[in-house]
């Protein structure tokens, strides 16, 4: 039986700094994993589906998006990660993955769908003040709905709740005690499975 190469999952809300954490991990891990970033892979797909469905361009949350777009984004990322890992290449997935990380049974099921074996969760912790500042500063159209109903968005991201899945926390709040680079370096130095 073939054992899948390791997988890293960098999860957290939009604006938390997942891309920055992923870039630091990619620079430090040997061999470097293949990066599967949800926005890179699916932003044009999501925009096209929203347009064809007559939905607002900036809609990236909510029941309609979850049913018609997110389920397919996550299924595609999962299948791609499983295939890459089966050929011996480690993978790093970057996305919110809110449902998967906050439900232990859903995490176990998803980890199996990813190919089983070593699946490490890195949770990028944030808070309301940090998210509001970063979303406003990056000025992306897809963030407009989040900022327009910011309290609902923060509640849906479960900012105050640690993941139910085994994880390592990277604190990327504006008030974080340690620099991001130091936190990621310490994580890589441990080089031990966490889940």
Compile the SSE list and pairings:
Elements: E1 7-11, H1 18-28, E2 34-37, H2 38-52, H3 63-86, E3 91-95, H4 98-101, H5 104-113, E4 119-125, H6 128-138, H7 144-148, H8 150-157, E5 168-171, H9 180-190
Parallel strand pairs: 1-3, 1-4, 2-3, 4-5
Helix pairs in contact: 1-9, 2-3
**Main sheet strand line-up:** 2-3-1-4-5
Indicate the mean pLDDT.
91
Proportion of helical residues: 40-55%
Percentage of residues in strands:
5-15%
H/E order of the elements? EHEHHEHHEHHHEH
User: What form results from the Cα inertia axes?
Assistant: globular
The end-to-end distance, rounded to whole angstroms, is: 21 Å
The unreliable regions are: none
Figure out the total of helices: 9
Give the structural class. Answer: alpha/beta
Number of strands: 5
Cα-atom radius of gyration = 16 Å
The biggest beta sheet reads: 5 strands, parallel
Walk me through what this model shows.
The chain is α/β, with parallel strands linked by helices. 51% of the residues lie in helices and 13% in strands. The chain has 9 helices and 5 strands; from the N terminus they run E-H-E-H-H-E-H-H-E-H-H-H-E-H. The protein has helices at 18-28, 38-52, 63-86, 98-101, 104-113, 128-138, 144-148, 150-157, 180-190, and strands at residues 7-11, 34-37, 91-95, 119-125, 168-171. It has a 5-stranded parallel beta sheet, sandwiched between helices. Helix 1 crosses helix 9 and helix 2 (38-52) packs antiparallel against helix 3 (63-86). The longest helix is centred in the middle third of the chain and has 24 residues, at 63-86. The model has no long low-confidence stretch (mean pLDDT 91).
